[in-house]
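Supplementary material to the annual report.
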Amino acid sequence: MSGQYTNEPMLDIYIFETSQLVEQLEETVLSSERCGSYSSDAINEIFRIMHTIKGSSAMMLFNEISNLAHIIEDMFFFLREEKPINLDCSALTDFVFESVDFIKLEIEKIKNGDNADGEATYIIDKLKVYISQLKSNNNIIIEGKNTKQESVKTQYYISQSSSDKQLYKYNYKAKIFFEDGCEMENIRAYTIIHNLKSITSDIKHIPEDIIENDDTIQQIREMGFEIIFRANQSYDEVYEFLMKSLFLKELMLTELHDDGDFIEKSIKAKEASDSIKMPIIQPNQSVKQNNNTDSQGSAAQGFISVPVGKMDKLMDLVGEMVIAEAMVTQNPDLKELNLDNFNKAARQLRKITSELQDMVMSIRMVPLSGTFHKMHRIVRDMSKKLNKEVELVIIGEETEVDKNIIEHISDPIMHLVRNAIDHGIEGKDDREASGKNKLGKITLEAKNAGNDVVILIKDDGKGLNKQKILEKAKQNGLLHKPEEEMNEKEIFNLIFLPGFSTKEAVTEFSGRGVGMDVVVKNIGKVGGSVSVDSILGLGTTITMKIPLTLAIVDGMNISVGKSCYTIPTIAIKESFRPKASDSIKDPDGNEMIMVRGECYPILRLHQLYKVKSAREHFHEGILVMVENEGKNICLFADELLGEQQVVVKTLPTYIKKIRKIVGLSGCTLLGDGSISLILDVAGLININV
Amino acid sequence: MKKILIVDDAAFMRMAIRTMLEKDDFEIVGEAENGLQAIKKYKECKPDVVTMDITMPEMDGLAALEVIMQYDPNAKVIMLSAMGQEVMVKDAIIRGAKTFVVKPFKEDHIIKTINKVLAL
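Predicted assembly:
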């Protein structure tokens, strides 16, 4: 790694920008491959991206990345300039992807603080062969760099007429050495010639072909750059003029008194070629000059990138502030005081804190498009290897989710997409035989639903086979219920159990022992859920429900004895005060209640958490019916305290370690400074089942 | 303090140059991501020196250089180039760029170059 930049911010921005560029590149390449050709815009973009990666990586001294980027840049330069016909898009794409994968891997290493020690030589060699093939296929004689510059090599000749001789009084010879390490000495030399033209038009120089021939760089480094010219200026003036040149290490200027000397030198210079060739000015990109520079400029918004850690901290602080605000405005000391002005001010404060909270939340929200578009690559690679034709359709990619959540759902989505291609979509022949379109379709859809985001992964493949699932579950001892009693949904949900896999052969892409249970676990970590629906022969839909954010929930506070609990409002179906006579008991002695003809189990919170409560009789307390994935239970509590937004804090680890407390997802601070435990409805329902 | 305008489409490069120059008492008066922005910023900030990347989207460094030189014939523009861009650098010199620096460059190198261009 570089000693030049040991500071983290440089590395961070390097990693951030390069990863972004690589993603952008992948998308461009994929869409080009889909079209079957690389448009000139796409070629330009890839060229530019590789150019940027090359430059940045070289600055950071990640030379392998830089070299690889350089060769791809060369390849796309060739494509841009020569526009070869019969280009094999798919092969080109493979090369670009192989390189992109290498760069990604290296970036990952750098991110993890490891050395970027990968060797790109094998890819570079392959690419070189490919490029030379491209060139020969395109009937281009490979003459080193000359091929590139053929188009710019239009020349003009410096006037050699004898009248020139009379125009200038003095003959000069200058020998110039440039500073070590200044690079591109040929262009530095050209700069001097260019400047000299302001005082004379009669110039010869050795070496001559400084622009066309890169070998002259070495020549100038070793032998110096020699210029012979005529001018009207005096020796001192010319000396001063030349000394102004940048990166000059050494200048030896001599005045040639003998005309013959000049001619002789000129002839020597002339021997190499008949005349001095200077490429004519040729703008190689047309200047799109327009007057709306202002509109263009202002359209570019200013962005700053902020470390996620700081955003998390800000979120935390805003959370604390929401609590502090409640602590002030709901302070017990203020009770029964006449506080009109205070209340007015307090309302203003509440308005601002809630706006602030919304704003911080919105900053943390990231669209799913990035995650979704990554799937294009997976679909492409897998369908190619499995010889299936699959198209990925993306709907609702602009749907936004909290940044922390995105990180948790990216892998599960990838796993589900792989599963869909591997196990869901049939081979081409099978599809045709069953009268389906040869092209399989996978739809990735996201949409908002209340406080959740729903992500659907649909395929139009063969669907889930209930019989097979049941057999497999039986084999693995996963059936806990008689087959006949299971409904369709329950059977499908078996695939989410640990240790379940219907595919006999483990393929490269899916089913590597990590099954759907891992997906469920990961989604569960962020408070989401997964369900599956399928029609045999028509396809499978997997639905992931994930919360918009982890940090703040709408909650209903309830009291049990002296303790306070918070139930996420989204899970509450209704609450009601029961009559003592409503309670019934099942044969095992579990309490149930009949509501509109349906029977629901009752969970007494004071019993579950061993809290002393004065209200143990039904008619004294209140029942809150909560729902999770279609299952309902009624929680028995003393009283409803009211609804409020609460900031979720995780339970301290020492508590988690001492005892595994079921049914709690975290805790929160209330306005009066007391602590409320947040109930995990799914957990509570599971205790009861 | 001498005023510098940094033009580069890569945020990394802009930050690298800014970090190097700010250590040495230069004032970065603006950053631009493409040629169009560069022209606008040049008119706004009147920098003493512009560091200009060549390959950029929207409008490249050469085109921007040309417009800036028309607007202010005394503009001091230093091109940032990479190996392989010799022809473009040569074009830039013809269009009035004072000199160029080849990426990757070191801190002292770019500072020395800017100081020399300022002394012209």
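The two ends of chain A are 57 Å apart (CA to CA).
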